[in-house]
Amino acid sequence: MDTMRDRFAPVVSRMLDEDDRIAVVLAEIGADGFREAGRRHPDRVINVGIREQLLVGAAAGLALTGLRPVVHTFASFLVERPFEQVKLDLGHQDVGAVLVSAAASFDWPSGGHTHMAPGDVALLDTLDGWTVHVPGHPDEAETLLHHAVTGDDKVYVRLSVQSNRQGRVIDGKRFLTVREGLRGVVVAVGPMLDAVLAATEGLDVTVLYATTVRPFDTAGLRRATRAAGTDVVLVEPYLAGTSAGEVNRALSDIPHRVLGLGVARRELRRYGTVEEHVAAHGLEARGLRERIGRFVDTGRPVTV
């Protein structure tokens, strides 16, 4: 199966052909995928070199002229390194762009800590007005790219080599109910769904699938808690607890408990493989089963 990133350049290249408002801004990473598109549209495929601050600054300048910039590099170089430009050039100037990342939390372990970004979504949470898409399958990535590029707002699309076995029909807004139960709600984000479904097999819980996490589907979560109770487990492929505040706001008028599972804060200093990093953070089915099972068994959930 191809990866989410494999879909990125072909999808956006077709959109470049169809819409002269779209521009692509790169910092060497991913440039090969846009070589042909660059020949067709040399004024709208721009490679700034290994200059990530300029990458975002140039995109903001293009947005000020009325273009729709699509900006791409590894997550650590797209959100963390040029964060001041994301905050000021895009946010303060109130212009839109589509930031499309690769490498996710630890998709390239041999690249070391410089190429890991489990804190990217949490960092964007310090800013106002960002839409955040976290697809769990290449088909979903394609759908969400179309949603993002055809809009005008500030959007982050987080691509990963981790993937669920099948894509689902998503609308870029609401959570999907994948399984229904009575003893808690588990929110599986993006590529975490398959592991969550395996981990919760036989548990009497509702499983919601989230591929758009900002804005957070408050209404969808509240609907689920009416039947399943207000014990909520978040399983996120980035920093553990990133969306806990969103759950607390959604259920602020109701007694509830939240367990945030995801990438731990501790730095793993061995390269290893993606699978070994997943296991080390307890995000494989066995690790999730132990913690989710213990949480939902510690008391009956409060019902609404």
From TrEMBL:
Q: Which Pfam families match?
A: Transket_pyr, Transketolase_C
GO function terms (MF aspect): magnesium ion binding
Q: Specify the superkingdom.
A: Bacteria
Could you say which residues form the signal peptide? none
Domain (Transketolase-like pyrimidine-binding): give its ranges.
2-166
Q: Which PANTHER family match?
A: PYRUVATE DEHYDROGENASE E1 COMPONENT (PTHR43825), TRANSKETOLASE-LIKE PYRIMIDINE-BINDING DOMAIN-CONTAINING PROTEIN (PTHR43825:SF1)
User: What is the protein name given in its UniProt record?
Assistant: Transketolase
Q: Whose protein is this, by species? A: Streptomyces lucensis JCM 4490
